[in-house]
Amino acid sequence: MRPIQMVDLKQQYEHIKPDVDAAIHSVLDSCAFINGKPVQDFAKHLSAYSGSKHIIPCANGTDALQIALMALGLQPGDEVITPSFTYIATTEVIALLQLKPVFVEVDTQTFCISPEAIEKAITPKTRAIVPVHLYGQSANMEAIMQIAEKHNLYVIEDNAQAIGCDYTFSNGVKKKTGTIGTIGCTSFFPSKNLGCYGDGGAIFTDDDRLSEQLKMIANHGQKIKYYHEVVGCNSRLDTLQAAILDIKLKKLDAYIAARQKAAAYYDKAFAGHPKITTPYIASYTNHVFHQYTLILNDVNRDGLSKYLAEHQVPSMIYYPVPAHRQKMFEAFGGGAYQLPQTDWLTERVISLPIHTELEENQLAFITQKVIAYINK
Do 165 and 138 touch, CB atoms closer than 8 A? Predict the structure, then answer.
């Protein structure tokens, strides 16, 4: 049996090595390392795949979120509703721009932001909502968009973990996550379902005016070189990464299917175990399994993690400290929040290896070790 990895990028690369190597050499031969043709090609192909009218490639997912918020003209002190149970980048950029993050609960089944919690948190200062499609399935976007329309709020989707996920509206219409809100943001960090070999990100919108604003902000606030209309930043996807992503985009649906197959194996192996809750999939979404995350019931999580490590099985806890309990948010009243569902989850979740190259013997070994520890 091959060594088990949380994400086996080496094996994935081996399967696409000829195409990737050829694409890299093509960029090297062209020497167009910044804004080369592969960047435009990838943006066009991602637009076609996602159904988003405009794709603005950028340097990473955190930049994507920051640029999105900058483009909306929010003012210092404006409130942005966001889950606390998420990677810190989601909330960090809100504070960075002197906006106020307002932390709300997630649904304990889906791990995604609760529409009911959003509604309760709205004040006259609320300007935007940032739902996170956590672990690979969609937040309840129909309900969120109805709230946003009712209160005239922007919606910025954090789609870093769910690219390729489908959301189905009550009328049967399907849309890709990241294309439903005002703006969508994603990351191409190497471990993502669509990952490059460095840093990368992208911004999605159907709004022509916003698209121009986003492009301008990502390019030092300029439309014409040396003529800077607004304060911007320098955030671009380099040509090498775009060339790699363009190859992997063609395989994204197959990558998702491989993750779903591995998740189905886990589900079957753990089915009915009283101390294990497997990932719940809401009726309005599929699941692309960026992470396969269990909720443990009456199990020593640290003990399980240590036991798995002793048997060369990696595991991860995403995320052990929610945003509202991070020191960086003390000035925003973080310690005053009462989010019992979020706290409950952070004490019980654990993620198992999930990627495109998992083999059945590896899955069998992982599940046997998990069950062996829990049944001790």
Answer: yes
Q: Answer yes or no: are the C-beta atoms of 8 and 357 closer than 8 Å.
A: yes
Q: What is the pLDDT along the chain (376 residues), one digit of tens a residue?
A: 999 999 999 999 999 999 999 999 999 999 999 999 999 999 999 999 999 999 999 999 999 999 999 999 999 999 999 999 999 999 999 999 999 999 999 999 999 999 999 999 999 999 999 999 999 999 999 999 999 999 999 999 999 999 999 999 999 999 999 999 999 999 999 999 999 999 999 999 999 999 999 999 999 999 999 999 999 999 999 999 999 999 999 999 999 999 999 999 999 999 999 999 999 999 999 999 999 999 999 999 999 999 999 999 999 999 999 999 999 999 888 788 999 999 999 999 999 999 999 999 999 999 999 999 999 8
The CA-atom distances, in angstroms, between 276 and each of 58, 321, 344, 355 are: 39, 21, 15, 21
Residue 150's identity, in one-letter code, is K
Neighbours of 223 (CB within 10 A): 13
- Round to whole Å and give the CA distance between 318 and 254: 25
Residue 85: count other Cβ atoms within 10 Å of its Cβ: 29
State the maximum Cα–Cα separation within the chain, in Å, rounded to a whole number: 68
Q: From CA 27, how far away is CA 46, in angstroms rounded?
A: 19
Helix (H, G, I), strand (E, B) or coil at 296: strand
Other beta carbons within 10 angstroms of residue 101's beta carbon come to: 24
Are 298 and 275 within 8 A, CB to CB?
Answer: yes
Rounded CA gap, 203 and 163, in Å? 12
- Residues with Cβ within 8 Å of 329's Cβ and at least 6 positions away in sequence, in order, are 91, 95, 101, 103, 323
Residue 294: which of 339, 341, 354, 253 has the closest Cα?
354
* Strands 201-205 vs 276-277: parallel, antiparallel or unpaired: unpaired
Q: How far lies 339's CA from each of 105, 143, 242, 320, 330, in Å?
A: 6, 21, 40, 14, 15
